[in-house]
Design brief:
Organism: Hyphococcus luteus
Protein name: DUF35 domain-containing protein
Strand order of the largest sheet: 4-5-6-8-7
Order of helices and strands: HEEEEEEEE
Distance between the termini: 28 Å
InterPro entries: ChsH2_C, ChsH2_Znr, NA-bd_OB-fold, Thioester_dehydratase-like
Number of strands: 8
Number of domains: 1
Shape: globular
CATH class: Mainly Beta
CATH topology: OB fold (Dihydrolipoamide Acetyltransferase, E2P)
Structural class: mainly beta
Helix content: under 10%
Largest sheet: 5 strands, mixed, barrel
Oligomer: single chain
């Protein structure tokens, strides 16, 4: 949705959602890498935006590169666009990454998305010249499914 003051869509701006708390995540996105956090104290793997460990409360976290593979935990189908970058209907899913954390993302290319589908990260070009993270369903052989 365009900003009423500037008339610009905030999702097309390169730094629309970036802040210093999750800079390692956004630096990874710029390199087409999905980065998550790992606790240096207890080893648990956490979501990208974690500021401290949810198990031991340590603030000593390291950004690690995720595999980019996961499973659909839950999803919704949007019939109205959140921004002009999406054409309804489209899926937004909670993805349980292989490493453990869950993230929210659009899942492309499947009008028959199901809970339990295996998905893999894909990277799209954007007007902001920063790759956009999305996921695509993969088949039993590990290849991305065609519609």
């Amino acid at each position: 949705m365009p900003n009423s003051e500037s008339g610009e869509d905030p999702l097309t701006k390169k730094d629309a959602f970036r802040d210093d708390k999750d800079i390692s995540f956004w630096d990874g996105i710029a390199r087409s890498e999905l980065r998550i956090k790992k606790c240096n104290a207890c080893g648990i793997v956490l979501s990208p935006g974690a500021l401290f460990c949810s198990e031991c409360w340590s603030g000593e976290l390291t950004a690690i590169k995720a595999s980019g593979r996961g499973m659909v935990h839950s999803f919704v189908v949007y019939h109205r666009a959140f921004s002009e970058n999406e054409t309804p209907p489209y899926n937004v899913a909670i993805i349980a990454l292989e490493e453990g954390p869950r993230i929210v993302s659009v899942v492309d290319g499947s009008d028959r998305l199901q809970v339990g589908n295996i998905v893999e990260a894909v990277w799209l070009s954007t007007p902001a010249q920063c790759p956009a993270l999305r996921f695509a369903v993969v088949d039993d052989t590990g290849r991305k499914k065609e519609n």
